[in-house]
Design brief:
With 478 residues, this protein is α/β, with parallel strands linked by helices. The protein folds into two domains: 271 residues, Aldehyde Dehydrogenase, Chain A, domain 1, CATH 3.40.605; 181 residues, Aldehyde Dehydrogenase, Chain A, domain 2 (3-Layer(aba) Sandwich), CATH 3.40.309.10. The protein contains 14 helices and 23 strands. InterPro entries: Ald_DH/histidinol_DH, Ald_DH_C, Ald_DH_CS_CYS, Ald_DH_CS_GLU, Ald_DH_N, Aldehyde_DH_dom.
Amino acid sequence: MSQRFQSYIDGRWIAGADSAADENPSDLGSPVGEYGSLNAAQVNEAIAAAAQAQRAWGLSSPQQRADALDFVGSEILARKEELGRLLAQEEGKTLPESIGEAARAGQIFKFFAGEALRIPGEKLASTRPGVDVEITREPVGVVGIIAPWNFPLAIPAWKIAPALAYGNAVVFKPAEIVPGCAWALAEILSRAGLPAGVFNLAIGSGRVVGQALVENRGIDALSFTGSVPTGNRLLKQAAERGLKIQLEMGGKNPLVVLADADLDKAVEIAVNGAYFSTGQRCTASSRLIVEAPVYDEFIARTRKRLQQIKVGNALAQGVDIGPVASRSQLETDLSYLEIARSEGAELLHGGELLELDTPGHYLSPALIAAQPQHRIAREEVFGPVAAVLRADDYEHALALANDTEFGLCAGIATTSLKYATHFKRHAQAGMVMVNLPTAGVDPHVPFGGRKASSYGPREQGRYAVEFYTTVKTAYTSA
């Protein structure tokens, strides 16, 4: 192991209290490196440093913030192949997807460099003569960021960049299985001209680092992306002390395929949305709802397409799907396949462990014919697993699409403007895609869902200002 990934506190690199291997899910015999985990005292030190540094950073010029973020974005873009390779090794995403994610992270920093110069405000006339009213936005203070492992560059970018752009300080906790990407991002930020303490990287367990971020009163706001159980627990803890919180917690996203759809295009949309990135996307099309007249043909064409999918080492050329990111996630995927069988769902394709040239967490993409009540059709699996459901007609398909506790994305494949328009209005989701995969969003527009998928203001784009700032109204008498 040639690389040790350290935390970054108050402008200093910190080794952490212990060490663990950073696994390569494509080749279990060749770890990416090792990392150290912070203890509670070190996390609290990071929070204190952020609180101290934020006072001046919150009053810094917009140009200073814009220059720092532009530097970060430019370096990420210049090094996207190198960073993409690290991401592919560490998370298991194919190399082209990983390079694309690195580029997206760079673009996000570039976008918020511009937003730092466009912080909105208003000047209004008062109802009282001789009184002026100014409405301004100010930073909330110290932002705790808890990011998941499935997009280890892009998701941290779309949280860290707006936090810094609007004058906040940051304490960032990455997922434990992707410390290398977090370290690489922190290393670039450490050279961006930020005052010591404005940005801090805290590598460690949720039990230690995450708990400190929600309990320590030096944290003014918390942005979390992860599982529903963890998000709900954080929400309860945040409510007890009035902590501003933003949650993104997954989905069970429907893709409706109507009988009038271009079926070849619909199959490509379904396979891309359900299985690319190994299905490890909260926006994945994990429920394929197909209108009865084309149900059998859709399944036949999808099975044929899945036979062409190549699963392999994330760094290998020609690979469509890399390994599952971790042993624990692989076990979850396999357990849901067994649950599906036990409940009477039919495995139509895949779901098999694969032995390849290098030992890794390889699973062939699984397609399962299910009923709406089956757990495989209701609970998020977060792997290369999709359930297909039969719908009698459009109205039935829409009802099935909305029959879920989640509401992140919803998609429809159709050539009908009537049904596309109706679906966009009536799908109970924060994002709707027409003739596009549900997985695949732009970084300059709002991201977020409804129901159990999200809580709090939207992420990304100009809407990020709602979470990372607080509004002040000032009255002045002449």
